[in-house]
Amino acid sequence: MLIKIPKGWEISGGRATSETIYMNRRNILKGMAGAGLIASIGSNAAFGTAFAADGEDPSASLYPVPHNDFYKVTRALTPEKIATTYNNFYEFGSHKEISEAAQALKIRPWTVKIDGMVEKEMEIDIDDLLAKMPLEERVYRHRCVEAWSMVVPWSGFPMKELVKLAAPMSGAKYVVMQTFEDKSVAPGQRQFWYPWPYTDGLTIEEATNDLTFLVTGLYGKPLPKQNGSPLRLAAPWKYGFKQVKSIVRFSFTDKRPETFWEKLIKNEYGFWANINPEVPHPRWSQATERDIGTGERIPTLLYNGYGEYVADIYKNMAGERLFM
Ligand SMILES: Nc1nc2c(c(=O)[nH]1)N[C@H]1C(S)=C(S)[C@@H](COP(=O)(O)O)O[C@H]1N2
Ligand SMILES: [Mo]
């Protein structure tokens, strides 16, 4: 296997979390699961009462998770307060101040369905999934098509681990991610002109790239609801609208899906949506972006700075609308 030497984009390794704390918590859980003491983590109250205070996310005791220092970002981390109060989540309103409204979302019980072109369709409880997956922390850039961006420490696991679990058939080419649908908690879903539920997709090759991350936490804690709890995507070389929040379903298919944003405005938002400062949005430039932490305007990078990991995926795709 080719070992990649990290490039010079340095960060202070300041987010590194304690391996010791992590190991203790994980070992307790693994030991209990191994001994059959918890038949189904999270699908009953045992997990929550044993490890988390009332009202806390039952996955709280899993965090912090070990920091993966391989993916480095030179910019400063965005303050947690800003990353968790300036959000896009149209289910809760088509503006940035949805963090309070999003608290109406019920994140337990939460079941993730895996279906379509897979060996065996399945439904898996989120806490069972968390217990199976190798959780780690990664600092990634996050760039919205609206030309703002942030840098945050996500916790989660490589999407390729979920693809492995799903065991797609050899003919499957795409995986479609779908957000929950519940008008009673998400007032935005009563706005009938949006093509709910929110969906977006990746090719299997993209989904199994090392960079592609399924996020379960932020800043060393469970993911806040407004950021897409309990499970959202971070494929950081693509615009933010690809990063589906609060996922309830992964469907494998051989047909390229039409995504939420394509259904809504096809000439502005395409399937690939790779970041490129030289390809403007039809209504504005993508050359620069505003860092919502520092307020600075900075140059946008091709593939958001992740070209060394992902550019090869697209080398034989001339003719595809790769950048919007
Ligand atoms: N279900 C759902 N997922 C979504 C969105 C949304 O409105 N609904 N907005 C997307 C957009 S446009 C962006 S920029 C990111 C914002 O993620 P953040 O609020 O964690 O920064 O979520 C993406 N995922
Ligand atoms: Mo976005």
Automatic annotation (TrEMBL):
Modifications the protein undergoes after translation, according to the UniProt entry: Predicted to be exported by the Tat system. The position of the signal peptide cleavage has not been experimentally proven.
Signal peptide annotation: none
Claim: Signal is one of the keywords in the record: yes
One GO BP annotation of this record: protein repair
Cofactor note: Binds 1 Mo-molybdopterin (Mo-MPT) cofactor per subunit.
InterPro entries found in the cross-reference section: MsrP, OxRdtase_Mopterin-bd_dom, OxRdtase_Mopterin-bd_sf, TAT_signal
Entry EC no(s): 1.8.5.-
Any one GO molecular function term: oxidoreductase activity, acting on a sulfur group of donors, quinone or similar compound as acceptor
Sites where the protein binds Mo-molybdopterin: 87, 90-91, 144, 179, 227, 232, 243-245
Reactions it catalyzes: L-methionyl-[protein] + a quinone + H2O = L-methionyl-(S)-S-oxide-[protein] + a quinol; L-methionyl-[protein] + a quinone + H2O = L-methionyl-(R)-S-oxide-[protein] + a quinol
Short name of any one Pfam family annotated for the protein: Oxidored_molyb
Keyword line: Metal-binding, Molybdenum, Oxidoreductase, Signal
Residue stretches making up the Oxidoreductase molybdopterin-binding domain: 106-261
PROSITE patterns: TAT (PS51318)
Subunit structure: Heterodimer of a catalytic subunit (MsrP) and a heme-binding subunit (MsrQ).
The protein's role, per its UniProt record: Part of the MsrPQ system that repairs oxidized periplasmic proteins containing methionine sulfoxide residues (Met-O), using respiratory chain electrons. Thus protects these proteins from oxidative-stress damage caused by reactive species of oxygen and chlorine generated by the host defense mechanisms. MsrPQ is essential for the maintenance of envelope integrity under bleach stress, rescuing a wide series of structurally unrelated periplasmic proteins from methionine oxidation.
Family membership: Belongs to the MsrP family.
Protein name according to UniProt: Protein-methionine-sulfoxide reductase catalytic subunit MsrP
Record organism: Sneathiella litorea
Lineage: Bacteria, Pseudomonadati, Pseudomonadota, Alphaproteobacteria, Sneathiellales
Gene assigned in the entry: msrP
